[in-house]
Specification:
The protein has 14 helices and eleven strands. The protein is of the alpha/beta class. It has two domains: about 240 residues, Alpha-Beta Barrel (TIM Barrel); about 70 residues, Non-ribosomal Peptide Synthetase Peptidyl Carrier Protein, Chain A (Orthogonal Bundle). It has an eight-stranded parallel barrel with strand order 3-4-6-7-8-9-10-11, surrounded by four helices. Helix 7 links the parallel strand 8 and strand 9. The longest helix is centred in the C-terminal third of the chain and has 19 residues. The chain is globular and about 60 Å long. The N and C termini lie far apart (about 40 Å). About 45% of the residues are buried.
């Protein structure tokens, strides 16, 4: 069974990816209830943390039922990353993760996230500084390289392991690819064959079905899989993958009652954590995903995304339950 320092994980853990504006405590709660083994916060700006910016500080909120949980940091300044690692450690997570994979312009063009793939010595120095600043295990999430000519993940993995990281997650694309094209796990598999690598290696990218999780687990020999977009509005994905890996059979998809119940649970967490205003507005991005592939859903979706009170939303969710129950009967 893989472990990250003292953090014990199941035999083949499924990790929830740290997704900006998605992986907040309400979303993490429903993913945990549906089989996520290790989760991460949304990525947190080191500069925001040390300036005490409200949005960054709020992202430090973690809850006992989420454990094990990691706080993910990003930044371009080594000293800021050191200070933010101390702040994150004080918040009491199980581990600290560094983001060297985010490809978006606002991050990479400021020298953070995937930009560090262009400066491996600085990446190594920054990582070593964070490792020394925290008594917690430090992990890293990154990509294959900056572009097709600089796929340096094999070298990067050895160097980061040598200075003390305790697990590595690799997204099977370069920064230039962003999220386009297919994720290529070939180098991730080669890394797992390297006898020098002793830390857990988790694969990430394009795992959108239990069959693919099964195939990639066996083909590339990873220690676990990180799941991102497939779980948005569909937290059942974790248990569906686990069941398939164990039995080779599919769990039945969630029926309308399960969809409504989990959506309501997500909404309740959101209202509790963010307050009635923001909690309501930020749930709007999730409704379409919860009710994907349901025919003639558009009028209900419009109601959900335009309602200005939680009572209205809950009423609409009950209407959805009643209207579509017979569709699946």
């Amino acid at each position: 069974m893989p472990s990250i320092g003292p953090v014990q994980l199941p035999e083949f853990p499924l990790l929830l990816a740290p997704m900006e504006d998605v992986s907040d405590p309400p979303f993490r709660a429903v993913c945990k209830q549906n089989g996520a083994d290790l989760m991460y916060t949304e990525f947190i700006s080191s500069e925001g943390l040390i300036r005490d910016a409200a949005k960054s500080v709020q992202k430090l909120d973690i809850f006992e039922y989420e454990r094990p949980i990691g706080i993910q940091l990003f930044g371009s300044d080594i000293e800021s990353m050191r200070k933010s690692a101390e702040i994150a450690t004080a918040a009491g997570p199980d581990l600290v993760d560094i983001n060297y994979g985010c490809p978006v312009k606002q991050v990479a063009c400021k020298g953070a996230g995937a930009a560090l793939l262009q400066d491996i010595p600085k990446m190594v120095k920054m990582t070593e500084t964070v490792v020394k600043a925290s008594h917690l295990p430090v992990t890293v999430k990154t990509r294959l390289g900056w572009d097709d000519t600089t796929k340096n993940i094999l070298e990067v993995a050895e160097r980061l392991q040598d200075i003390g990281i305790q697990a590595l997650t690799i997204h099977g694309r370069t920064r230039v690819q962003m999220y386009k094209g297919d994720a290529d796990w070939t180098l991730i598999g080669r890394l797992k064959e390297n006898p020098r690598i002793t830390i857990p290696i988790f694969g990430n990218g394009d795992i959108d079905s239990p069959e693919k999780a099964f195939e990639y687990k066996n083909r590339y020999g990873v220690d676990g899989i990180m799941i991102g977009r497939a779980a948005i509005g569909y937290p059942w994905f974790f248990n569906e993958v686990k069941h398939f890996l164990k039995t080779g059979e599919h769990l039945p998809p969630p029926d309308i009652n399960q969809r409504v119940d989990v959506c309501k649970s997500h909404l309740e967490f959101s209202l509790k954590w963010k307050g009635p205003g923001l909690g309501l507005v930020e749930m709007r991005r999730h409704y379409t995903n919860y009710f994907k592939h349901i025919p003639d859903f558009k009028p209900f979706r419009m109601k959900l995304v335009t309602s200005n009170s939680s009572e209205e939303v809950l009423e609409t969710l009950d209407d959805i339950r009643n209207r579509f129950a017979f569709v699946e009967a």
